[in-house]
Structures are given as structure tokens and as C-alpha cells.
Protein 1
Amino acid sequence: MDEQNAQIAEETNTPTQNDATLLIRIEEMIKTHLQQIDGLSEDITKHKDMLDDIFLN
């Protein structure tokens, strides 16, 4: 029983190709989300400027 538990613990602690792939995908998702946030920030600035102009008139 102890040998089986040790083997399971060793398997869960060793990084695999799947872990590397998952890490790369997560990194790509983060970059994509950051690009979307930057784009939305630019849109917000444009809309805020438009609203400010409307309220000034």
C-alpha cells in the first residue's frame, strides 16, 4: 500500500507534456485578455471624451 501511495505521489509531482501545454495555453489566454483590456480602455476613453463634449454643449 505504501509503495502504491508513493508511486501516486511521484506521478502527481512530476511535470508532464500536458502541464507544459496547459501552461502555454494559459499564457496565451492571459495575453489575449490583456490585449482585449487595452482595446476596451481605448474605447472607454473615446466614449468618455464624446460624453464630455456632449455635456459641455
Protein 2
Amino acid sequence: MAIIQPKLEVVLNPANPVQEVCEVINAVSAYHPNKEAEILAGLMQAIGARLQELQKPPEQE
């Protein structure tokens, strides 16, 4: 029996990260048109958490 799965394989150019990541988000969103807002909200939460980590002062030993 055949197993059929949709799959995206992505190759990114690290020299242009913002545009490349935006294109990946658009490609993934195309598979979930009714959940695009939920996907974007989850990404905003993850990005916000990472930004907070980056803005913390370095821990002193």
C-alpha cells in the first residue's frame, strides 16, 4: 500500500535570512489556509521569546 505524504524540503540562502524565512512561512501557510493566523501567532510568540532571551544581560559567573 502506498503511503503519500505532503512534504516540503527547503534550502535556504543564509546570506538573505529574512526573505528566505518569510518565503518558507508563506509556503507552509499555503498548506494550512484556515490556520494561517494561528501559525503566525505561534511564530510571533516564539520570536518574542527568543528576542527576550537575546536581550537578557549576560550571566556573571
Protein 3
Amino acid sequence: MRRSIERVALLAGLALGAAVAGPVGSAAAAAHPADARANTDRDRGAAQAKAAKKKPARASKRARARRRAQVVRGRTGPRGAKGGPGPAGGRGEAGARGPKGENGGQGPKGDSGPQGPKGDTGPQGPGATGIARDMTPTPSGTPHVLGRAGPFTLSATCTQDGADVLLTLFVAGPAATVDGYITREGLGGTNTTLVSGVQFADSSSSPVELVSVGTAPIRGPRARYSGSIFTAAGGVQAEGTFAASAGACRASVVSYPFS
């Protein structure tokens, strides 16, 4: 391609020189062959320079490759908008169970709760003796033997004294000491009496009064005894309830021997 351009430029320069020089030029060229060659070389250089000015600059190899890529791929468009969140994925499978962790430290002790109500009396335990007796009041107050409590014999009388009924509990046996509490319930309310270290001599033939209740306000119709009757060799722990009413008396005692 370059050689063709040079040839065309040479021919154009020769034609132009011939036209300008005319016959004189031709004659001068014939008379001076060396000058003619010099003129021809000069004209050829001028023609090449002119052609070089008209020829566009050749693009670099990288630019040509970029243009070819643009022709094949098309130009890059503007950046698209951000897409919305996709739908939630399905629930994955449960992982394997991890190892058991270490036991934590013992926590602080909690506050004590309020005291609960008193429970019902439980069944009689082994070695215990239960005594219960219902009696009808009599003017003479006939003694009723209730039973044995360790080395002691318990008895009671239910006496009708006018409009009042009096229930009295007696204990008979070797010399002993009595400790405990007697709680009376009467028309005036409830009061508790402490019985501590009360001693009595041998009462085998003459029973000793332990508890009494009555319908008269001075005594109270109901009473509870909780304590012990003991000797140097042992004794009994006793729990008893006693009640007197207009037509009946009732005594109930549970005792536990100890040594």
C-alpha cells in the first residue's frame, strides 16, 4: 500500500514538473542530465512529505483491539439498579446435639417460707398407746379407768354438779414428775398454763389429779395437755384432749413410753 502511494506521488510530481517547465524544462533536462535527476529526487521527497501529512496517524495496537472488542461485544451500558431481596431460604436441618455443659455453681439459699398450717394428727406410731373414752355425767363422779401409759394408770371422772359438768383426769403410779402445757378454751378465750417440775409421791393407791375441765366458765369446757410424766427409770410422753358438755364427757390420750 505504501509503495503504491509513493509511485502515485512520483508520477504526479513528474507530470507537474513537465507542465511547468514546458519545452524549456525538457530541453534543459536533456542538456543537463545530473540536474534533472536532482530535481526529480527533490520533487519526489516533497510529494512523499505531502502524502505523509495527508495520511492519518495509525492507531495503537491496544486501541485497535478495544475497537474490535466494542464491535463484537457492544458498548457497556449504564449500571443497573440494585435488585430487591430474594425470597427466604428453606429451613436448614437441625445440627447435631452439643456436649453436655458443666454443672453451674450452687445458688444462694432462698428465704424461709411462711409456716404452714398445722397438719392432722398422724396415725399412732409403734410403741404408742392410744386411749379414748366417752362418759356420761353422774352425781357421784364414778371413776373410769382409761388404760395404762407406761408405768402409770390413767383414769377419769365425769361429774354432774347442778348445771355444771366436770371432767377430771387422774394418774396413779410410782412417784413421778410432770412437765408440760395445759391449754384451756373457755368462754373467756384461750389461755395456756405451764406445768413444770410438779412432783407427786407414789400414787398407786391414791390417784393424783392431772387435768380438769368443766362447763362452768371458771374452768372452760375444753382443754389440751402436752407434756411428760416421768420417773428416774423412765416415763411417757403424753398428748391428750378433754371436753365436757351438758350431757357427756370425753377424754382422749396418746402416750409414748421412753427410758
